[in-house]
Predict the structure.
Amino acid sequence: MITRRLLPSLALLLSGCAGAHTDYPSLAKRPIESAPMAEAPPPPSPVASDPALRTEIDRLSAQAQAGAATFDKAYEVADKAVRAADGSAVSSDAWVAAQTSISALESARNDSVSALASLDTLYVERSNAIADGKASGGIDDIDAVRASVLALVDGQNDRLDALKARLPQP
């Protein structure tokens, strides 16, 4: 009984394969597939550096280095004051002197932080000028100096946070 039902179904399935369909695309190679491959364009030639940009980058780098030297001198003073305030109570004379030296240390890093902010601004302005077609190149130079100044400022932040952690907080 099952074979009686299966035979008509099988006949219908096989009849679907019998006809030739001509509306399918050919699997033969198309002309575009045998076209010659284009060669990769040569790498862009290096862009001549902008002397005004290089001067500005060098000025900001020197400003950051001067800020680092000032920070290092102020750090020695602040470290001594924090060591002297070790174990003293909040609002004692030694604690207040240590807090004052930490405030001076935070001010001493202004040149480095300011140089980093100026490099960030210079990077954005240069990127916009390149996108608008008004300038070319210079982004890599700015980014290299910016990365070194960022590392410098991060180091200053870490040292400052370590000093603050050694003092009792109110």
Summary: The chain has a mean pLDDT of 87. The helical segments are 2-18, 51-84, 93-108, 110-131, 139-166.
